[in-house]
Amino acid sequence: MFKLPHAELFTANKRAFRNIFLKAIFYRPLTLVSAINLVMLKLSIMKIIFIALCISLISCQKEYPIADTGNAEEAARLSGNNVFSLRTNDVPETQPLTYVPITLSISENCGGFWRGLPAIYNSTTKKYPLLIHLTGESKLGDGSAADLATIASPLHSSLKNKSFPPNFVSGGKNFSFIVISPQFKVWPTANDINEIVNYFTSTLRIDKTRIYVSGLSMGGGVTWDYGAKYASKVAAIVPVCGSHTPTQTKAKIIASANLPVWAFHNELDPRVPVVKTIDFVNMINKFHPGIAAKMTIDPSETLGHNAWDKAFSQTYKENNMNIYQWMLQYHR
């Protein structure tokens, strides 16, 4: 006499077993073994269907929209576009930066800024050098659209009229700057500049080894101040007719950090004495930095306070480099 296997083997489908078993006894001349085999076959088919459904669910991928500024790397990862993005990373920029004013309070002293992004920023995953550009005292404002419209400098103008180069070559590599021109409400401090740097390094894809600061007049003075307080954080500075009094302490900090400096000033500047730049550069070099600080002093009698036209010009070069090419030589 045949014995049925233990009932727990059929708990997944007792009803199916019962129906087939009854049919086997009353309707068809099947042996009890055949009936059991049919039940097992049905259970196997059900298992295959269940496994197929699981695989189907696992393989389904949610589609993510292309990320907005600052999140392209994550979007590419989630949407499976890594190969495309990695290929785009190697493509030199050929289109002008997208340069727009943005009213946004990012610190107590900054209510807005101009932001220049490489044209294909959202199609890449790479990190970019950051150039913080600081203007003069007359351009202070609350960051509103009206006040941001007063921002002016040669660099600012070249970004607006799209003549600023989208790509620079340094050391055989292609670089495209992210340029930020913040507007401050009152004369900024080194800490104010650091808040700007921290904000953009946390919201944009910034190469933290390539942070550069440049500025003119008030902005030039704050560039000196930032370089002295955060020397190890910045890769190079370009202070232009900077309104800042040098000290041995600050000069030693800059020298000890081997912070590259290229300073500009006009010899007959009627507003900020040229001696401020000369003394600062000489003090730094007395501490024998690994990279000697350099200065460009223009003897012209007609330029007045305006040393920025030459400094920020793409055509003015020393050792075959303008300031942008010069900065990109250096990184942290």
Which helices and strands, and how do they pair?
Elements: H1 14-26, H2 32-59, H3 72-79, H4 82-89, E1 98-107, E2 110-117, E3 128-134, H5 145-148, H6 154-160, E4 168-170, E5 173-175, E6 178-184, H7 190-203, E7 206-216, H8 218-229, E8 236-240, H9 248-256, E9 262-266, H10 275-286, E10 294-298, H11 308-311, H12 323-328
Parallel strand pairs: 3-6, 3-7, 7-8, 9-10
Antiparallel strand pairs: 1-2, 2-6, 4-5
In short:
With about 325 residues, the chain is α/β, with parallel strands linked by helices. The chain has helices spanning about 15-25, 30-60, 70-80, 80-90, 145-150, 155-160, 190-205, 220-230, 250-255, 275-285, 310, 325-330, and strands at about 100-105, 110-115, 130-135, 170, 175, 180-185, 205-215, 235-240, 260-265, 295-300.
Structural features, described:
This protein has twelve helices and ten strands. It has 332 residues and is an alpha/beta fold. The protein has two domains: 9-59, no CATH class; 91-328, Alpha/Beta hydrolase fold, catalytic domain (Rossmann fold, 3-Layer(aba) Sandwich), CATH 3.40.50.1820. The strands form three sheets. A six-stranded mixed beta sheet has the order 1-2-6-3-7-8. A two-stranded antiparallel ribbon has the order 4-5. Mean pLDDT is 84; it is low at 1-12, 24-30 and 58-84.
